[in-house]
Write a structure and sequence with these properties.
353 residues; six-stranded mixed β-sheet; elongated; 16 strands; alpha+beta
């Protein structure tokens, strides 16, 4: 085979990979439009979007270097289609945590991981101190534990947050404004749940949702595998990967059903809505799209920088604050506290004029 033939074969191979990357990326961008049940492979492409975008950038540079401008259009057009997705993870600008001098409602969402199950109450009180520093008016906690030794964490919180709505198991909403009504929303066959509280702010009622959707199951599977290894059992890598994939897909389908349940509840609401929580899912997924509905993603509206909320090796955004169009975002940011495996997100809102 001659040199020219080898070059043509190599270029053709790169072109095929370029086209496949385009197809997979565009499919991933719309993977969240269908329920994961029966569409697992398509739904899973949403999670690969960051890698697919990087691949398109690499191949666009390749075709530019090769001066094949017509082939360069494939990754270029694909990347242009990805701009809205990238906006859910990164926004140009700098963070203004105070939101200037504009007055508004400060809300926070934080998965506190049971305060690391420590019994002295130090972590819960430290988090309360941080909420005071951030001038938070309403905070939604997931994986909350009210018991701290022989005392209750709510005893410390009630001085700053005089109003409290307790959900099922590990959910709570604290507020500096009066809570007029609340409801627990239980999910079947899981410890996860959601709740809402209707809060009166300046003579107007707002409904604040606090959601903790089904976990991915990855950490639980890895922990079980590590425990078996310590006990002297051999863990087959293929079986481990199959278990991770199986647990993840089951969790993905469960979250989709939970999101549908919450979306139906939201449609029946007649007052402005704010949605907070740990969704355990990434932007553009079916869960993200369903929970968002016709609401506004606070980070896309007024956030800045690279947004990820899971504290660990996986830099993913799974904690959110959305709001009704009747409200307007002033600022949105996270704080990198080390109390939990999640970072809290904060948002300042005002009534739209």
């Amino acid at each position: 085979m001659g040199k020219l033939a080898v070059q043509k074969y190599f270029s053709f191979t790169i072109l095929v990979i370029t086209v496949l990357l385009m197809v997979f990326t565009l499919t991933g961008l719309f993977g969240g439009d269908v329920t994961p049940a029966g569409n697992t492979a398509r739904a899973m492409l949403v999670y690969a979007l960051p890698l697919l975008i990087i691949g398109n950038i690499v191949f666009m540079i390749y075709w530019i270097v090769m001066r094949r401008w017509h082939w360069m259009l494939f990754p270029l057009l694909t990347l242009l289609c990805c701009i809205p997705y990238v906006g859910t993870l990164y926004q140009i600008g700098s963070v203004d945590e105070e939101g200037g001098k504009e007055k508004g409602i400060k809300i926070a969402s934080y998965n506190v991981a049971m305060f690391n199950r420590e019994t002295s109450g130090f972590i819960s009180q430290d988090i309360l101190s941080e909420m005071k520093k951030q001038n938070v008016d309403i905070v939604c906690f997931q994986e909350y534990n009210n018991q701290s030794g022989d005392k209750k964490n709510s005893d410390y919180y009630k001085e700053y947050f005089p109003y409290m709505a307790v959900g099922e198991s590990d959910m709570v909403i604290y507020s500096r404004y009066p809570i007029k009504n609340f409801k627990n929303i239980n999910f079947e066959m899981t410890n996860n749940s959601a709740m809402w509280a209707e809060i009166e702010i300046n003579d107007k009622i707002y409904r604040v949702y606090n959601a903790h959707l089904e976990t991915t199951g990855i950490n639980r599977t890895l922990h079980k595998a590590a425990k078996m290894t310590v006990q002297g059992f051999t863990v087959d890598n293929n079986r481990l990967l199959n278990a991770i994939y199986g647990n993840y897909t089951v969790g993905m389908i469960a979250r989709a059903g939970q999101a549908n349940m919450l979306a139906m509840d939201m449609r029946e609401c007649e007052v402005p809505i704010i949605v907070c929580g740990d969704f355990n899912d990434v932007p553009y997924s079916y869960v993200y799209n369903t929970m968002l509905g016709d609401k506004i993603d606070g980070f896309k509206e007024c956030g800045a920088g690279f947004m990820y909320t899971f504290r660990g090796s996986k830099k993913v955004r799974i904690d959110y604050i959305f709001h009704d169009e009747a409200l307007e975002g002033i600022t949105y940011y996270k704080r990198e506290y080390s109390y939990s495996d999640h970072y809290p997100v904060f948002m300042k809102l005002k009534v739209k004029k």
